[in-house]
Amino acid sequence: MERFLASLSNELFKLRKRKKYLVFLIIGAVICVASALRVLIVNYITDGGVSREAILGGLMSSNLPFILLIFLPLMAVMAASDLFVGEQVDHTLRFSLMRPVGKGKLFFSKAAAVFLLCAFDLAVLYVVSTVAQVGLGGGTEGILTSLGACLLDLIPLAVLGSLFVGAVLLVFSRQKNGESPYILVVRCASHREEEQVRALVEARVRRLNLKSKAVSPGEIELNFEVRLREADTGFVNELGAMSGVDHVVLVSYNGDYMG
Fold first, then answer.
1. How far is CA 255 from CA 48, 86, 94, 221, in A?
2. What is the pTM of this model?
3. Which of 61, 109, 124, 183 could connect to 7 by a Cys-Cys bridge, CB 3.0–4.6 Å?
């Protein structure tokens, strides 16, 4: 349980760092308040002929279609994408899979993080809509009914969110290790050896990208990002045996490089 809570805290921290969720929550709250301000327009048009209670009664119930069908699914998809696709892009997802946390706990921690984000947003929008309804003179009609509807709608949200998160986790966890990025560091004596090194590596790896090059008297240091082909590392031994090459290192990394 302790590892699960630690993993959940880590996933929530990742979401908190992304300010877009706060921005979208503010936009959602503004939309809910804007729907309440219709009382001013209707009262003006009818010259007060329609009571505020009649217009604003059950404001949250009228906002539920927007919140449950548009806003919360958008937040759930964004959060799940950030916790999986975003980590896959910056090459950190595989490190999550390598932590001393089982895939089951990792799955439930990510699913719980998405669910808690949506539950928090729903609670905030419920409070905003309720305060707007009461503050603008709409009374308390429908408040408890709306609260019950919100609580019930969290159940399918949790189930569907868990299925989506689980499917994405299954796909990424089965990816081949050869797709992982590596840094290849080679020190050679001259430009001629540099060309030989590059030609050999290009022929043996799936992808090659020069990250940095440092030149000093009698030595050239090359740093490549490589993607292995079928986890083949035999070319490292061949590089080490080349004339004019005195240092070869192949290390795994998480995608963040500082030259």
1. 63, 12, 11, 20
2. 0.55
3. 109
